[in-house]
Amino acid sequence: MLTGKQKQYLKGTAVDFSAVVQIGKEGITDNVINSVTEALAARELIKVKINQNSAENIRKAAKLLSEESGCEIV
Predict the structure, then answer these.
(1) Distance CA 23, CA 55 (A)
(2) Strands (E), 1-74
(3) Residue 38: strand pairing partners
(4) If we measure between CA atoms, which residue out of 41, 32, 39 comes closest to residue 62?
(5) What predicted TM-score, i.e. pTM, was given to this entire model?
(6) Under 8 Å between Cβ of 40 and 74
(7) Which among 61, 11, 74 is positioned nearest to 33, based on CA atoms?
């Protein structure tokens, strides 16, 4: 688990990042989960964008992706 200060530092670091993975109208698929897992292995810190045409809830999507990929939400 990350502390609050660690999360704040990572958020500040990620400000200039662009989204590596995008969730479209199909929602969270196996391909999205695989992309997140691969991107995390390569970069350790990524941004995920949910497109406007997606029906996904931000918090639910973040929770599902963190559980499936074994990462922590910042």
Answers:
(1) 10
(2) 21-23, 48-50
(3) none
(4) 32
(5) 0.88
(6) no
(7) 61
